[in-house]
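Reopening: Trans-cinnamate 4-monooxygenase still failing for me.
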Amino acid sequence: MDLLLLEKALLGIFAAVVIAIAISKLRGKRFRLPPGPLPVPIFGNWLQVGDDLNHRNLNDLAKRFGDIFLLRMGQRNLVVVSSPELAKEVLHTQGVEFGSRTRNVVFDIFTGKGQDMVFTVYGEHWRKMRRIMTVPFFTSKVVQQYRHGWEAEAASVVEDVKKNPDSATTGIVLRRRLQLMMYNNMYRIMFDRRFESENDPLFLKLRALNGERSRLAQSFDYNYGDFIPILRPFLRGYLKICKEVKETRLKLFKDYFIEERKKLGNTKITTNEGLKCAIDHILDAQQKGEINEDNVLYIVENINVAAIETTLWSIEWGIAELVNHPEIQSKLRNELDTVLGPGVPITEPDIYKLPYLQAVIKEALRLRMAIPLLVPHMNLHDAKLGGYDIPAESKILVNAWWLANNPATWKNPEEFRPERFFEEESKVEANGNDFRYLPFGVGRRSCPGIILALPILAITIGRLVQNFELLPPPGQAKLDTSEKGGQFSLHILKHSTIVAKPRAF
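Support: Ran it again with your exact input. Result attached.
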């Protein structure tokens, strides 16, 4: 069977060469394509640029080919834009034309071919899903309903760190406790549920499955089968694992959370505040026939990945930068003590009185953007961009990290310097009011989670700095902030061990 498969693959490759050459000639007459490296038949530019299309590698290519360039990755067209003006075209001016999402063979599995909100194409289904998710997740009312829970979870982190004897001496991997906090923050909103400890069996199972989902989806190992469909049979084992993980996760979501909430709903029990949690609203939409059961499950899937991990990465980056810049940490602590009083815990309404804390968060999101290329966009039909023709169903990447780290438009961008947001960048906000700074994107497909992420970041970082002096472990001058990227993400390569010395009030 292996020989037969190889024979078919070789025949397919030969046929694809002929077709690719023919299409290339036809398109050469029809399209004025963006510049880029010269592609070869079948493989395009894949063998030249490799799998790891991270923000830094794409920036190196932009320096050669310009602010808009085209890569042919097998049969896929990939267009990269690296200027604020072109980002505005993609995300705002032509937001409808470039408003769809491109997926790949693995994301098709994990999202049921776009039955979710994040990866569905632009159209009626996306509008419906966005509307259904907005009320229970992404409003000021939700922040006010749940901010007391976020504050309680941050207080619990502080207490647990104080109780750990290693915290003030050899240090702990703080991320592990913060991960539990983030799960509790989001599961309070989704299901009015929380996990008691890092050893909760259900939490451990959920964390392991979500971690495996993230590893499989973010890996570059499957790109060859995505770029060159004729090679997809060699991915059979990888895709089988993806399907098994997906089915196990969705079953866990359904059995342990959705069905349990349905039982509570049948007995007319609501949250402690007498208000519905998110899944109640979503199940109401299902009962009205607006969405089906699969859509409900994929909404839960989106929140598990998009809301929990990305915010956790940003918290981790922010803490690492404060450890490595003790003078900034001290300045932030002084602001908290002066404005609120020593030992007075920060709450959500306090954030607006703390401009330096806001600047620290904005700077962490600028220098260490969790989704440096944003979630990829796609044009369903042939389009124009920057004076070039963009063939239908091209994958459009906006290098948002470079927009916020370009020395031509930012002063000393490699420095972690929150003061820039009081000085030369005093009018720049995280909501996309400046196309040089788009940590959450902007426009129709921007991340609606900004309304949750910013207060959670501020409460968590604020409470830690109020209660601890955060230091690198003994014998280490700084934390290692080497980056690890995936298909979309950017997080710290090695989760940091941090010494947290309690402050005396």
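The radius of gyration is 24 Å. If you still see a failure, please send the error message rather than a screenshot.
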